[in-house]
Amino acid sequence: MSMGDFINIQPSELKFPVESRKQSSCSMQLANKTDQFIAFKVKTTNPKKYSVRPNAGIVLPNSVCNVTVTMQAQKDAPPDMQCRDKFLVQSAVAPNGSTNKDVTQEMFNREDGKVVNEFKLRVIYIPANPPSPVPEGDEEGNSPRSSSAEEEIRKSALSEAAWAAVSKLNEEKASAIQQNKKLQEELELLRKQTRHGQGAPVSTIVVLFCLLLGILLGYFIKK
Questions:
Q1: I need a surface site. Which of 14, 64, 93, 140 has the fewest CB within 10 A?
Q2: How many distinct structural domains can be found in the chain?
Q3: What pLDDT shows up at residue 118?
Q4: Are 85 and 190 in a shared domain?
C-alpha cells in the first residue's frame, strides 16, 4: 500500500482452485488504517462469472472487512490454466457514521476534486488437487514406507521361527529327560536284582552300555 491509500488490500492476486463443474472461492481483506470511515466497491470485468459478498460497504476506522469472491462452476478448466479476468476495488472517504446501506455509486465519482483510490487485482487459476510429493525410494521403486513394512514382516517371520525352534528344543529336552529317568530306573532295578541274585545275571557289557548311554543323554541335556 502506498502512502495516501485509504485501505490495504490483501492478497494482491485472487487465486481460485479450478475443478470442472465445481465452484470455488477465495477471500480478500480490506484493512482501514485511517481514522476515517472508508467506503469501498468491488467491480469485475466478468460479473456473470463471479459473485462478491459484500460487493460494497463501509470499513470502519482502524478496522478490517473480509470480502468473499466466488467463481461459478465452469464446464471445463482452461487447458493452459490462464485467466484474463480482473477485479477493481475502489475506495473513498465517507461521512462519519456511514453504514453499508449508505454506500452509493456517487461516492466513487471523481468530481469536485474528490479522491478515489483504485486497486486492481488479477485472477490466477491453480489446480484444485495438486499431486502430492512422492517420497524417494530405492532403484527398484520401493518407498521408505514399503521398505519399513517389509522389515517388520521379516522381523515377525524371524521371531516366529525362533519361537518354533525353542519350542522344539524344549520338547526334545523333556523327552530326553524322561528317557534318561526311565533308563536310570531300569538300571537301578537291574542292580538290585543282581545284588540279591534275582533273575538272570546282567553282563558287564550291558551295564557299561547303559551307563555310557546315560552319560551321553546327560551331556545332551546340559548342552
A1: 140
A2: 2
A3: 95
A4: no
Sign of the four-CA dihedral 116, 89, 80, 76: negative
Residue 30 lies in a domain: yes
Residue 51 has pLDDT above 80, yes or no: yes
- At 92, is the secondary structure helix, strand, or coil? strand
| 103-155: pLDDT as tens digits | 999 999 988 788 999 999 999 999 887 656 655 554 445 555 555 656 665 66
175 bridge partner residues: none
Helix ranges (DSSP H) in the chain: 144-195, 204-222
d(CA 70, CA 14): 10
Query: What letter represents residue 177's amino acid?
Result: I
* Cβ-Cβ contacts under 8 Å for 60 (sequence gap 6 or more): 32, 37
Per-residue burial over 31-58, b = 16 or more CB atoms within 10 Å of its CB, e = otherwise: ebeeebbbbbbbbbeeeeebebeebbbb
Query: Which of 69, 96, 127 is at the close of a domain?
Result: 127
Q: Which residues of 115-143 are buried (b: 16+ CB within 10 A; e: fewer)?
A: ebbebebebbbeeeeeeeeeeeeeeeeee
pLDDT for residue 26: 96
CATH of the domain at 18: 2.60.40.10
CA 65 to chain centre: 33
Q: How far apart are CA 95 and CA 114, in angstroms?
A: 13
Cα end-to-end span (Å), the chain: 86
